[in-house]
Write a structure and sequence with these properties.
The protein has 343 residues and is an alpha/beta fold. It has 3 domains: 56 residues, 434 Repressor (Amino-terminal Domain) (Orthogonal Bundle); 101 residues, Response regulator (Rossmann fold), CATH 3.40.50; 129 residues, Response regulator (Rossmann fold), CATH 3.40.50.2300. Helices cover 38% and strands 17% of the residues. The chain has a 6-stranded parallel β-sheet. It has a 4-stranded parallel β-sheet with strand order 7-6-8-9. Strand 8, helix 11 and strand 9 form a beta-alpha-beta unit. The protein is globular, with a radius of gyration of 25 Å.
């Protein structure tokens, strides 16, 4: 039997739904229940239906938010060093892609180094990408204004800068440190140390300040140690050489990578974790799950951070941004690297 050629309206009538819902299903967009999607596809399968590209483009233009021309955004990964990109964007970028899909936005990804905009020219990597706005990860002292000359920007991750002229979405460092300290205090720890990998990174400095605040609030003994740098084994050796009564019973490290390195350095120095000292990280990255023992950490909701970055950028491009500074929370991941303090 020859199939009929009908319109969206005919398919909507047969599926007992609206033409807008039929359009969403046939375009593969989210927001439609599985039973309704199946009903629409079954109805469409009875006809030789092919969407009209010109009409679809016209509809997108008619309903596109003010300020959008390309229906696309760029994600600019700023790198002071190549290691800046290592394993840090998996969940965040997934959140970006989900939110962009929901808003029917294309996403381009490019790498921008500091030297690419020396002398403040427009970065060629972004010049080649048609986009309406740019998501930018935060690194210290980067000339963001050069990027903002191309399109509106939103800073993603890092530590919020109160005086920044650009909208920002960042992890709530204070909430994370408070959650970790509360966990350790509940286990009975009273002598704690915060170990930054460095203090030049704004988010690590913020976490150190939040740690000191929590120590005062809870009347606990806490110190911010010298930065670990690339040599956690030095701290582990010094820790092992101290009398047991003078050691902190819990160590909060500024991020998961250095925390795992320190944990293994302590084990190599003959210090049992968590029997002799508890160790925590911050960020909740996946590699902490496979350390020995698995690492307790504060997991930032990186997926939501990526989603909210896209939403804030879309609002900024459309000219009706609300909040220009958004903090993203997270949850405590308790694993085997923390326990009660030694008696």
């Amino acid at each position: 039997m020859q199939k009929q050629t009908l319109s969206l309206r005919d398919i909507a009538a047969l599926a007992n739904t609206s033409t807008a819902t039929v359009s969403r299903v046939l375009a593969g967009r989210a927001g439609v229940s599985a039973p309704l999607r199946d009903r629409v596809l079954a109805a469409a399968g009875q006809f030789q239906f092919t969407p009209n590209p010109s009409a679809s483009a016209l509809a997108r233009k008619r309903f596109a938010p003010t300020g959008f021309t390309h229906r696309a955004i760029a994600v600019a990964l700023l790198a002071a060093q190549e290691t800046t990109l290592a394993r840090l964007w998996d969940e965040t970028y997934e959140g970006v892609l989900h939110a962009a899909h929901d808003q029917e936005l294309g996403v381009s990804l490019c790498l921008v180094r500091r030297e690419d905009i020396a002398g403040n020219p427009l970065p060629s990597a972004l010049m080649r990408i048609p986009c309406d706005g740019i998501l930018v990860n935060q690194i210290p002292d980067f000339p963001y204004a050069a990027l903002a000359r191309l399109a509106p920007i939103v800073l993603l991750g890092g530590c919020p800068e109160p005086d920044s002229p650009f909208p920002q979405v960042a992890a709530d460092n204070d909430m994370g440190i408070a959650g970790l300290v509360a966990h350790l205090a509940a286990l009975g720890h009273r002598r704690l140390a915060f170990l930054p990998s460095d203090l030049s990174t704004p988010s690590f400095a913020r976490r150190a300040a939040a740690f000191e605040t929590e120590m005062r609030k809870r009347a606990l003994h806490g110190v911010v140690a010298e930065p670990l740098g690339d040599h956690p084994e030095r701290y582990a050796a010094a820790f092992a050489a101290r009398p047991r009564a003078e050691r902190p019973t819990a160590l909060l490290v500024s991020s998961d990578g250095p925390a795992v390195d320190l944990l293994h350095a302590l084990l190599a120095a003959g210090i049992r974790v968590p029997e002799e000292v508890s160790v925590t990280g911050f960020d909740g990255r996946t590699w902490g799950q496979s350390s020995v023992p698995p690492l307790t950490s504060w997991h930032v909701d990186w997926l939501e951070l990526g989603r909210q970055g896209v939403r804030l950028l879309a609002d900024t491009v459309a000219g009706h941004a609300g909040s220009t500074r958004m903090l993203i929370g997270g949850s405590l991941q308790v694993r085997a690297s923390t326990g009660a303090p030694p008696s």
